[in-house]
Specification:
By secondary structure, this protein is an alpha+beta fold. It is built from 13 helices and six strands. The two termini are 68 Å apart.
Length: 320
């Protein structure tokens, strides 16, 4: 089963908003025209429409559905997006209540659509419940530990460098270093790299792939505590010293957590659906006849007639 198909099953369907005959009102306008509502701290009521309630969770769920991101962050109460979605839900509620007053919910078409909507909602509730039980902090930690054991980790180098424009300047600085001058002090005084000069030329830790090829080749060939010969890059002439070497640290749990949750969610969803398919009795219609070009089905029926019956028909047509 494709990831795209699984994702489509999981995403909630956005409710279509309808425009009312009056201009849209802000939350302040709405509150000023009606009674102040007592808010339930767990899930506050944002509006009442003819005795029905629209709660904060309704607005948040609809906002996320419109964005196509059921796992995102909903808009804050009182924000422009929150107020817009609330007004849309009020309009939608008014339309639904009017449809019921007209008994439209009793029509065959309405019943069919309501049944499909109920299936989607119940399916989403099942998925959300199952995933909430499966995707725990303990599970995420376990998967993280399994993954970092599989990640190939290379070597990192921490180095300082001094950047100048000419080879002659680089050779002069190298001579001073050979005399015992402090590398960091010379970097502060002479380096033209404004990003690292005041830090004594400190580049921090980097991998071979995370820096310029010419720079990386020299840095990883220089022993810890050693000073390189002057070398050239597209920025000028460099001298570097290697301060430390270490094994590249693995990505942190927080860095990998979103990907772990995403792929484990799809894995669990696929397992849930495949399990249900295995246990269910599913019958599919034979579409070959429906997909056959017009006329072929009739030809097949005519060709499949009993030969004896055809012969009898010929005999009946013979003159006596």
């Amino acid at each position: 089963m494709s990831v795209f198909r699984l994702f489509c099953i999981f995403v909630l369907t956005a409710t279509c908003a309808a425009c009312g005959p009056e201009p849209r009102r802000t939350v302040e306008d709405f509150d000023s025209r009606g009674p102040v509502l007592a808010l339930d701290e767990a899930d506050p009521v944002m509006a009442r429409v003819d005795g029905t309630m629209i709660r904060r969770s309704d607005v948040e769920r609809e906002a996320l559905a419109q964005d196509g991101d059921s796992g995102g962050t909903p808009p804050a109460v009182g924000s422009e997006d929150f107020d817009r979605v609330l007004e849309e839900l009020i309009d939608q509620r008014l339309l639904a209540l009017e449809a019921r007053r007209r008994d439209l919910h009793q029509s065959e078409e309405a019943r069919r659509r309501l049944a499909l909507a109920e299936e989607r909602i119940l399916g989403n509730v099942l998925v959300e419940t199952a995933l909430a039980d499966a995707v725990t902090d303990e599970t995420i930690q376990r998967i993280y530990e399994e993954q970092i054991r599989l990640i190939p980790l290379g070597e990192e180098v921490r180095a300082r460098h001094i950047l100048v424009q000419t080879r002659e300047e680089a050779l002069a600085i190298k001579a001073l270093l050979d005399e015992g001058r402090d590398f960091a002090e010379l970097a502060v005084a002479m380096s033209e790299d404004q990003a690292t000069r005041l830090e004594g030329g400190d580049l921090g830790y980097f991998s071979r792939e995370g820096i310029l090829p010419a720079f990386g080749a020299v840095a990883f060939a220089t022993p810890e505590g050693g000073v390189s010969e002057p070398f050239r890059s597209e920025f000028g002439w460099h001298i570097l010293t290697v301060v430390d070497r270490r094994r590249q640290p693995p990505p942190s749990l927080e860095a990998l957590r979103p990907n772990i949750i995403r792929f484990y969610t799809f894995d669990q969803l696929e397992a849930l659906i495949e399990g249900l398919r295995t246990e269910a009795e599913i019958e599919r219609a034979d579409l070959s006849r429906l997909l056959a070009p017009a006329g072929e089905a009739g030809d097949e029926e005519q060709g499949s007639a009993d030969p004896d019956e055809a012969e009898d028909n010929l005999d009946l047509d013979e003159p006596g």
